[in-house]
């Protein structure tokens, strides 16, 4: 598997890099950001999953995670949010919430999406294996976090396989895609009408069906414009309470959905993961 280094910039003694490679899962070129802290490693690593409309660049440019990642010695991997390229179909109306920039971290089952939209397997299998084989990352010390659509991706990936992703947190996650317009559009489009197939892509349904992680940290801004209609953290609170699943949900007064919110609390998340990945 050949990796092409697209850029590398020194940051807090380490390097913020962007790579491209040919993905066997998506059958397209894929890009990801990778922060490499100073030192030799092996380091614990965090996967960051971004939200709707993002590429591999939003988190690395806006979250301000490099300073503490350097100090703690954390690798952070930030993939793009969908396959892209001339052969990749987009939402027929060009909407931002489906298709390009909106892969929803699923393996699509419906044509024409199924040919390329395989962000679940891309992240869980291909990129995970690539990062472990090509970079100084300590096996078994990998966590995952994300924002909005990516918060949904992080929660569902950790719940499905807590041994692969040993720590999990989220900013303003889509708590239950089966129960909001963004999620219902994506799951119906990528997976088809049979809702029983949607459950493995819904954090609340996974918890109801018995999936567990050791604990999870979720930050949610109270001034987030998507809170009531799309994100619905109360559904996650309810599912966790009913199942005895530990959840640290923090309602952050006055914060919106933006990267200004993420940057305000990203250090707490890095520390949360570092503690668990080095225990
Ligand atoms: N109304 C927004 C919805 C998309 C949105 O808020 N995206 C969030 C994730 S759900 C984001 O991270 N945007 C990119 C950024 O803020 O850098 C738009 O049309 O761009």
Automatic annotation (TrEMBL):
Keywords: Hydrolase, Serine esterase. Its EC number is 3.1.2.12. GO terms for molecular function: carboxylic ester hydrolase activity; S-formylglutathione hydrolase activity. It is an enzyme of class 3 (hydrolase). The active site is at 148 (charge relay system), 224 (charge relay system), 257 (charge relay system). It comes from the Bacteria. It catalyses: S-formylglutathione + H2O = formate + glutathione + H(+). One of its GO terms (cellular component) is cytosol. Belongs to the esterase D family. Serine hydrolase involved in the detoxification of formaldehyde. This is S-formylglutathione hydrolase. It comes from Amphiplicatus metriothermophilus. The lineage of its organism: Bacteria, Pseudomonadati, Pseudomonadota, Alphaproteobacteria, Parvularculales.
